[in-house]
Amino acid sequence: MAPHTEQLTRPATRPAVRLEGLTRSFEGRTVLDGVDLDIPAGQFVALLGHSGSGKSTLLRAVAGLDHEVRGSGRLTAPERVSVVFQDSRLLPWRRVLANVLLGLDGKAAEERGREALAEVGLAGRERAWPNELSGGEAQRAALARSLVREPELLLADEPFGALDALTRIRMHVLLRELWERHRPSVLLVTHDVDEAIVLADRVLVLDRGRIGLDLTIDRPHPRSYRDPLLGEYRERLLAALGVTEDHQ
Ligand SMILES: Nc1ncnc2c1ncn2[C@@H]1O[C@H](COP(=O)(O)OP(=O)(O)OP(=O)(O)O)[C@@H](O)[C@H]1O
């Protein structure tokens, strides 16, 4: 398969994401059909869409992980990008701190790794093996691994999708706290409308290869699921997804 033709531009000044006419196709089927999108530096954005709508395809494009995919358009992304997936992708043969530090050397990096583990609530677990961690703890370690690289952009593809409801809520609080402290731009792919509304300041819906809805969530943090004003955003997002409350 021929590689795509757009150029990946690294901006010299303010890190931000810009997609201009981004297309991606698999075996002749267009999944992204000329997506235009700007994400200002430090903005927390969630991306919703039906299964198969192309959310991961978009995220992988921004991450620069899709060189084998056919496509075109222009794409601008910051220099330092970290990606968190649904599974932690920790290397089972390395201890937790070694996983966090993967590819980084030196005392200063080790210190940053320890600090990052403390930030995600895993102080004291540096020498644990990945298989000794719960699912939530493994995702915390994955967040620490991305933080330690001080990303300008954090890409997260359903990072809490495999966690139980209570752990997921704890992770929401943690992610938002980490964002407050470090202020990377965030692009969070999720199926969960409530997760998007509670965490993000802007929610996008991917529909037929384009951004079908671009909604600013203008409510203070921390947000409560019970905030009636969030209910209005929820309805608009569900409508954009073609879901009515009656069908819940
Ligand atoms: N490597 C690939 N080869 C062929 N088709 C692919 C490939 N990657 C994705 N696709 C197809 O592109 C479409 C979009 O997939 P993608 O994973 O981006 O959707 P998604 O919105 O993230 O879905 P989900 O919410 O189910 O994870 C799907 O129809 C999928 O089958």
UniProtKB/TrEMBL annotation:
It comes from the Bacteria. The keyword Membrane applies. Keywords: ATP-binding, Cell membrane, Membrane, Nucleotide-binding, Translocase, Transport. SMART domains: AAA. InterPro entries: AAA+_ATPase (IPR003593), ABC_transporter-like_ATP-bd (IPR003439), ABC_transporter-like_CS (IPR017871), ABC_transporter_ATP-bind (IPR050166), P-loop_NTPase (IPR027417). One of its GO terms (molecular function) is ATP binding. SUPFAM superfamilies: P-loop containing nucleoside triphosphate hydrolases. Residues 17-233 form the ABC transporter domain. The keyword Translocase applies. PANTHER family: ALIPHATIC SULFONATES IMPORT ATP-BINDING PROTEIN SSUB, TAURINE IMPORT ATP-BINDING PROTEIN-RELATED. This is ABC transporter ATP-binding protein.
